[in-house]
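Q: Hi! First time doing this. I have a protein sequence and I read that you can turn it into a structure. Is that right? Here it is:
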Amino acid sequence: MHKLYVVHSSHPCETVKKALELKAIPYRTVEMLMPTQAPLQMLRFRRRTVPALKLDGGEKISGSRAILRRLDELVPDPPLLPADAAARAAVLDAERWGEEVLQPLARRLVWAALKRRPGAIPSFQEASQLPQLPRPVVRLVAPGVIAIERAMNRAADDAVRADLRELPEHLDRIDDWILDGVLAGAKEPNAADLQIGASLRLLSTLADVRPLLAGRPGDALAAALFADFPGDVPEGAYPADWLPVARA
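A: Yes, that's right. Below is the predicted 3D structure, encoded as structure tokens:
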């Protein structure tokens, strides 16, 4: 059986899980504890990131976009890319943006928020296959894990402030893609829906960010595709002057 290597609550991992579900491809999950995935994945796949997929024939694929392309080859129906050349190019462009821009932005915002709200870390482990660490242990190790992940993901304060300032413009772009049909919606999701929807769903775990998402088509899309997404970071994870004003 295929093996999918993941970190629980990782948004690109959820992207691939959803694609496997849509295509009804059986697989087994190998879950790793953060931040141990980096050295373990380097040994297995020569890349530190998740998700990574090992097919039952031994083939190894790393990264959500590469995995989605391979899944379309293995099981063409339902397709994750349109047949029409122009529509396919638009979806691929949106998917690339989702992976290269929105995905790391969401990751930076979460780790910056957890720096100030480390007590929220256990909420991201709900339904994990791994044994739950006692809360005193979590409190003890949290500062080190957060520091490592912030460094790995370049989540310095100036970068996070820029991310928050630019987030409304990014959300407008996503809503435009929905209106234009580039993002197809939850009934017949394409690769860009899965890539962008998972990142939006992760952003919705941040109480400070939820007002920026509320009422937007992108938020509805993410909730429909990824209903059961763990994590809840209370308000006050960012200084008030970092947050843009939510649209009316």
